[in-house]
Amino acid sequence: MFTGIIETTGIIKNVNTSGSNKTIWIESAFSHELQLDQSVSHSGVCLTVDKVKENIHRVTAIQETLLKTTLDTWKAGDIINLERALKTGSRLDGHFVQGHVDTVASCIEKKEKDGSWEYEFGFPKKFAGLLIEKGSVCVNGISLTSFDVKKKSFKVAIIPYTYEHTNMKTVENGGSVNIEFDMIGKYVLRKLFLKE
Q1: Number of structural domains found in the chain
Q2: Is the pTM of this model over 0.70?
Q3: Taking burial as the number of CB atoms within 10 A of a residue's CB, which of 93, 127, 129, 178 is the most buried?
Q4: Structure-derived torsion over alpha carbons of residues 104, 79, 46, 154, reported in degrees to the nearest 10
Q5: What would the pLDDT profile of 7-42 be if each residue is shown by its tens digit?
Q6: Cα separation of 105 and 54, whole Å?
Q7: Would residue 97 count as lying in a domain?
Q8: In this structure, are 123 and 183 located in the same domain?
Q9: Please, which residues bridge with residue 176 across strands?
Q10: CA atoms 196, 185, 183, 177: torsion sign
Q11: Are residues 111 and 154 both part of a single domain?
Q12: Is residue 44 located within the same domain as residue 79?
């Protein structure tokens, strides 16, 4: 479980393919503190640490993960957002995030707004019921507030701190991001579906 508050960014050092899996080596400020079997959010994707070597750690992604996230496009030199799992008793500054990406969204428009940035993302219409005005949405692992929500698009605003300390600065028009919708909304929608 995560909060969507990014701790640091990491740089992908190497990506290897083995069968239908990909192993990824990431260098970051806290890689040396990680332990085997720890869950870490990598741009919104919950992955298990399977090796640590000095200031670099390794994770493995299976085919299911590659199909539903942007991870299949990751390459050496890419910057990714990192967050370690939530500790019991910690402040919850974002919202409950599982690290289970629902879909990939495309950046329709990026606007600089005199000190902040506004992004519009397009997503598959079948997820429209999971997004509400002023609701929580996780974009590349970042807890954000959605607005101007439509059936196939929504907007988020990025403050300067988030822009500088995450990989949002690398997201341009046409770029893809990982999206996880609010867990509470999923349960509510499921409950409504079961009543039918």
Answers
A1: 2
A2: yes
A3: 178
A4: -30
A5: 999 999 999 999 999 999 999 999 999 999 999 999
A6: 34
A7: no
A8: yes
A9: 106
A10: positive
A11: yes
A12: yes
Residues 114, 141 within the same domain: yes
The string of pLDDT tens digits covering residues 138-192 is 999 999 999 999 999 999 999 999 999 999 999 999 999 999 999 988 888 787 8
Contact present, 141 and 6 (Cβ < 8 Å)? yes
Place of tokens 């990714």: 80
Alpha-carbon distances of 96 from 41, 64, 135, 177, rounded to whole Å: 13, 22, 12, 19
Spatial distance between the Cα atoms of 44 and 138, rounded to a whole number of angstroms:
7
DSSP structure string for the chain: -B-S---EEEEEEEEEEETTEEEEEEEETTGGG--TT-EEEETTEEEEEEEEETTEEEEEE-HHHHHHSSGGG--TT-EEEEEEPPPTT----S--B-S---EEEEEEEEEE-SSSEEEEEE--GGGGGG--TT-EEEETTEEEE-BS--SSEEEEEE-HHHHHHSGGGG--TT-EEEEEE-HHHHHHHHHHHHH-
Asked if residue 31 belongs to a domain, the reply is yes
Same domain, 12 and 49: yes
Residue with the larger pLDDT of the pair 193 and 114: 114
Question: What's 20's domain CATH number?
Answer: 2.40.30.20
Domain residue limits at 169? 103-195
Q: Give φ, ψ of 103 to 5 degrees.
A: -165, 170
Q: Which of 53, 84, 115 is the last residue of a domain?
A: 84
